Amino acid sequence: MSETLSNSYLDSLLHGQSSLPESPRGWLNALRSDALERANALSVPTTRDEEWRYTDLSPLYQKNFRRALPASPPAPAALASFTLPEAGCRLVFVDGHFTPELSSASSDPALGVAPFSAALAEQDPILQAHLARYVAPGQDAFVAVNTAWLQDGVLVRVLAGQAARAPVHVLCVSTQPDGASYPRLLLVAEAGAQCTVVEDFVALHAGETLTNCVTEIALSENARVRHVRVQRESLAAFHIGTCGVQIGRGAHYLSSAVALGARISRFNLNITQAGEGAESTLDGLALIGGKQLADTHSLLDHLQPHGRSRQLFKCVVDDAAHAVFNGKIFVHPGAQRTDSSQQSRSLLLSPRARVDTKPQLEIFADDVKCAHGAAVGQLEADQVFYLKSRGLDEAAARNLLTFAFAAEIVRRIPLPSLAGQLERIVLQQTQKQTSNRNRP
Amino acid sequence: MTTKTILEVRDLTARINGVPILKGMNLTINAGEVHAIMGPNGSGKSTFAKVLAGHPAYEVTGGQVLFKGADLFAMAAEERARAGVFLGFQYPIEVPGVTNSAFLRLAYNTVQGARGKDELDPLEFDDFVQDKLKLLEMDPAFLERSVNEGFSGGEKKRNEILQMAILEPALAILDEVDSGLDIDALRIVATGVTRLRTPDNAVLLVTHYQRLLNYIVPDFVHVMDEGRVLRTGGKDLALELESRGYDWVAKESAGVAA
Q1: CB contacts < 8 Å between A and B, how many?
Q2: In A, which residues are within 8 Å of B53 by CB distance?
Q3: Which residues of A326-338 are buried (b: 16+ CB within 10 A; e: fewer)?
Q4: Which of A380, A392, A411 sits opposite B78 (nearest CB)?
Q5: Which of A161, A232, A428, A429 could tie A261 with a disulfide, CB 3.0–4.6 Å?
Q6: Do A93 and A211 contact (CB within 8 A), yes or no?
Q7: Share of chain A above pLDDT 70, in %
Q8: How many domains does chain B have?
C-alpha cells in the first residue's frame, strides 16, 4: 500500500477525532495529540513488514470504517447469553463506548472500578501514572489511532494486599455493523493484590466492523492477575487487539486468550517481566474455519533474574482458514536463571488449512533454561486407533480427539460458566461429519 | 458340556510396509482358557496382537481368523471391540484433554449399546466404576485426570486393565502387560486379570518373561519365532524357556522340518 493510500486510510479512521471534546485534564489532551501526531507519521502495516508477513490486512484497508457513534444501548436481554454468573461486576462497552446503564458496580472493597471520566473528574493519580505506559502510543498505527481516540475507558484497581472476591467481566459488544470501536482497559494490581479479569468481545450482528482495542495491565510486586480474553466477534469482523503487561517482582500473570471469531484478527500480547522472580503463564487457542485468519504475536521480555514463563499456544484450523503464531522471547543480559518454555501445537483439519508458527528466542544471558517446540499436524493415527480399539467409530474418535485438543486450553479457564460456554462452541465446531476430511 | 471356541487362527500371514511379519500363525483358544505367547524380540508376538485388534499399519495377506465363529477381518477395529475383542496396549496412548471418566463412560456406553444393553448416565457409571477401581487398587482421582497423561508406566497398565474390567471382553489380548511394572504393580495387574476370568472368556498374554506367568497361570504356552508358532506346551514350557532360552526351540523345530 502506498503511503498516500495508507495516510488516507488513517485519515478515515481518524475522521472526527478533532471534534472530540477536550478533556479537563491537560495531560490527557497532550497524550491524545501526541498519539495523533504519531498516527499521522506512521503507516498502516502491510505484508512487507516482517511483523505482518503472513497477515494481509488489505481487505480491511478497502473499508473506510469510521468510529461508531454511541447507539442506543441494546436491551439487557440481548446480552443474557453472555452473562457470567461468577462475575462480581460487569463493565460493558457498546461499540467501544463505556455504557454505565448496562454495567454493574462493584461492591468489593478490594476493587476500585471507575470509568476514565469519573477517574479524571476525581483527578485520580493512578490513571495518569499508568495510562499509555505499558502500550506505547507510537508502537504501531493501530495503537496510535486507539490512543488518539482515548475518551472513556475503564480503570480497574485492585488494592494492595487484597484479593478480589469475584472476577471482573469486561464485555465489549458490537451492536452496529460498519463502524470502528476503540475499547480501552487499564488494570492496576497493587502489591500483593489478586484478581481475575475477563475480557469478552462479542457481536449482536454478523456484519463487518473493526475493533481496535488496547488493554494495559500492571502487576506490582507479588500481585497475581488471571486474564481471560475471548474474541468471539462476527465472522465478518476485523479485530486488532493489543495488550501490554508489566510484571513486578515476584508477581504472576496468567493469561488465557481464545480467538474464535472475526474474518481477520490480530492479537499482540507484549509482556515485560520487569521484576526479579516475575512469572507468566500464557495459554492461547485459535479455533477457526472458513476463510478466517487469526494471528497471535506474543513478545515476552525477561529483564530480571529468576523469571519464569510457561506458554502453550494451540491452533485448530479447518477449511481454508489460516492461523499465525509468532512467539518472541527475549532474555536480557541481567536475566540470569530465567526458566522459560514455549510450546505451539497446531491441528490442521483440512488440506487447505494453513498454519505459520514461529518461535523466536533471543537469549543474552548465559545461565538460563529455555525450551521451545512447535508441532503442526493431523490427528495421530495411534490415538485414533486407541479409541477405535475401545469401540468408538472413526468419526467419534476423530471428533473426540479434536475436541480434546482444543478443550485442554478452554478447561483451564477458571470460570466454570465461561469454560462451559466455550466448551460448547468448541464441541459444535469440532463435531462435524468427518467423511470428507482427515482421511490420509 | 461343550467347549466354546473363542478364537481360531488358521495360516495367518501379515506384513507391515511390505515386510512379511506373520508367516503362517495357527492357534485355537477356547472359552475359559489362558494362553501365553512367548518368543524373542522380533518374533511377531506384538504384531499378532495388533493384527487381531485391527491396527491399520498391518496388512493381512492370507489365512483366516474366526472370532466366536465370525470372520474377524470382516469387522472394523471398533466392531471387533464391540464384539468382545480387547487389546491391552504395550504402550497405552495419552489423550490429553479427555478425562478418564468421560472416556471410560463413552467406551462403555458405545460397547453396551452395540451389545443391546442399557447405557449408564454419569452417576450410575460412577457407581459402576468405583468397584472396578477397587479391583485394581486405583485412586478415584485417576478418573478426573486426562487419559494416561502423565501416568507412570504402572498406572498406564492398571488403566488398561481397568478398561478391560469395564468392557468385559470375550477375548482379552494383553500385549506385554508386565513391561515396566515393579513387583507390586505386577501383582495388582495380575490379580486384576485373574479375577476377571470367567468360564466364558479367554485371555491371550503376550510376554517376554516367565515372571508374569507365576501370577496369571496359563493353560497353554506358545513359542513364536519368525512369524509362526514353533512349539506349544503347558505352563512348564515357560519355565524351560526361562532356564534354557529360545534357541533350542528354533533348533529343534528346524530339525523336525528337516
Answers
A1: 79
A2: 389
A3: bbbbbbbeebbbb
A4: A392
A5: A232
A6: no
A7: 97
A8: 1
Decide: helix, strand or coil at residue A128: helix
Query: Which chain B positions have a beta carbon within 8 Å of A401's beta carbon?
Result: 95, 98
- Record the cell numbers describing residue A47, joined without a space: 505484508
Considering only CA atoms, which of B29, B240, B211, B93 is closest in space to residue A389?
Answer: B93
Closest CB from A380, A383, A392 relative to B107: A392
Report the amino acid identity of residue A118: A
Q: What is the pLDDT of residues A129-170, one digit of tens each?
A: 999 999 999 999 999 999 999 988 999 999 999 999 999 999
pLDDT digits (tens, 9 = 90+) for A395-407: 899 889 999 999 8
Question: Which of A388, A393, A404 is facing B95, going by the closest CB pair?
Answer: A404
Alpha helices (H) along A158-230? none
List, run by run, the mean pLDDT of 10-residue segments along chain B (258 residues).
Answer: 85 96 97 96 94 96 97 97 97 90 94 92 93 92 91 93 96 94 92 96 94 93 95 91 86 69
Residue of B nearest to A407 (CA): B97
Residues of A in contact with B114 (CB under 8 A): 391
Cβ neighbours, 10 Å, residue A423: 17
Smallest Cα distance from A194 to chain B, Å: 28
Of A393, A408, A411, the CB nearest to B78: A393
Residues 6+ apart with CB under 8 A from A4: none
Q: Is residue B23 exposed (0-12), middle (13-18) or buried (19+ Cβ within 10 Å)?
A: middle
**Is residue A254 a contact partner of residue A284, using CB atoms and an 8 Å limit?**
no
User: Which residue range(s) make up the domain with B169?
Assistant: 5-257
Please say whether the beta carbons of B197 and B33 come within 8 A: no
DSSP string, A186-228: EEEE-TT-EEEEEEEEEESSSS--EEEEEEEEEE-TT-EEEEE
Residue A168 φ then ψ, to 5°:
-95, 130
Chain length of chain B: 258
Phi, psi of A353 (to 5 degrees): -70, 150
Please name the helix (run of DSSP H) or strand (run of DSSP E) that holds residue A189, with its range, or none: strand A184-189
Q: Does A381 touch chain B (CB under 8 A)?
A: yes
Contact A403 B87 (CB under 8 A): no
| Interval A174-179 mean pLDDT | 94
Amino acid B70 reads A
Q: Minimal Cα–Cα distance from A409 to chain B, Å?
A: 8
Instruction: Give the integer Cα–Cα distance in Å for A400 and A417.
Output: 21
A75 touches chain B (CB under 8 A): no
Interchain contact, B95 vs A385, CB within 8 Å: no
Write the CATH number for B98.
3.40.50.300
For the record, the C-alpha cell of A77 comes out as 436481554
The full length of chain A comes to 440
The whole-number pLDDT of residue A4 equals 65
Collect all residues of chain A within an 8 Å Cβ-Cβ radius of residue B95.
Answer: 383, 386-387, 400-401, 404
